[in-house]
Amino acid sequence: MERRLAGLCDPGSEDFHEHEMSFSLRTGVNMSPDVSIKIRRRFKPDIVFHNQWLFRYIGVPEPDAKCPVIVRKVINSICYSQDCMTFAKTLGLRMDYEYMAKGKLWTKGNIKIATNILSRTERPGQYDPASIKPVSDSVLVEISCALPESAEYTMAAKQIRDFADQLMPLVCMEKVDYWRKYCSTGTVASQLGPIPVPPM
Amino acid sequence: MGISWVLEVDQSVKSVERLLETNGAEKIGPFTVDVTPYIPTAQHSIDIPQNYVVHHTKFPQTTFSIIPGENFKKSPKAVCDRGFDLILSKMRNGTTPDLHGKIEISGGEYRLEDFVVRVGTAVQGTTVKGIVVEVDFEPCAVVAQCKELMTEFIKTIFAKYADNRPDIFNSNEGPQNYTPLDTMWQYVTIVSKLRKKT
User: I need a labelling partner for A80 at 20 to 30 A (CA). Which of A21, A37, A129, A173 fits?
Assistant: First the structure.
């Protein structure tokens, strides 16, 4: 898989190991989550990066049946906070699930390809190697492309589709309505396997 | 870099500017600081506290967010880029900007050797709430190293406010790095006082 990517992508790749927590603002009926915000940081960060966080808002997908990939709105914000957890809590955000992702990031033009091996902790709040267990032995492949807001996305969507097709049969990208099924249960495990990722 | 002392003065902008110019300061440009409170929607009035979002022209790409607690240390706070404003607007079901309560401080920036002094009028909507002065000593980042110097500066120019030092100047916890958040905290404290004033 890695060799295939190395052949297809721009030279060089970047390793990452991050800890992602998914929060949501529960304002709907029955306190159902309606806005979800992902907060990410380097896992086991060294002092320099210890308090640097990435806030990411991911909107609902565009209802476009013809488009071969999922299109969602994304807003990123780099954030520095000494007590990010308290800060998020006072904003009204509550955590749904968390996981650790380790992998490599590749690029091909403006397409971003990330391979993720996911793991999670068995005891929430404890991140020592003993309690961290892999979620499964699959690799989650994210293929995405960022475009300006309200830009025409058909071209980029086709590019992503074409790129993903070259990874067959290792990765089969399908357009699944995964958010409908899994958003509320909030388990990362069910999202595993090669899933399509929209242009961001 | 830079340590700021923010104070509210009860003289006109003109007289402060004249005072600075007679002491040899030069005008270097305009500045704006805006402080917007984000208030929780009715159903969340208990679990979400009020949040202040501050922008400052010295840090044009940055958004500061402070949720005031009893003191600076205990207030959750963060420094973000401007994307954070957009994320906050997505959370409007839980917290909304209180545009009537927004206070904008705008005016001129003066340089007097290593000091930068910002003099601005605080305006809420169309009402003038007061005059705010920020004295920024740029070469230093540790309060303990320069608080005497800054006190002396304030004594020379704004004599009657010299005793009213910001909390961080009175802290005895040993030398600590000063961050722009400390400046924003001073603005938030002053603005919440100004809002109560009629």
Answer: A129
**B64, B55 contact by CB (below 8 A):** yes
**CATH number, domain B3-196, options 1.20.81.30, 2.40.30.10, 3.30.70.980, 2.40.320.10:** 2.40.320.10
Residues on chain A touching B84 (C-beta within 8 angstroms): 55, 77, 79
Q: What is the pLDDT of residue A78?
A: 86
Residue B24 pLDDT greater than 80, yes or no: yes
Q: What is the ipTM of this complex?
A: 0.71
Q: For residue B51, which residues of chain A lie inside 8 Å, CB to CB?
A: 90-91
Full-model pTM: 0.77
- Look up residue B166 and give its amino acid: P
* Residue A105, domain CATH: 2.40.320.10
Please report the pLDDT score of residue A193 as a whole number. Answer: 36
Q: Please write the tens of the pLDDT for every residue from B35-51.
A: 998 888 877 777 778 88
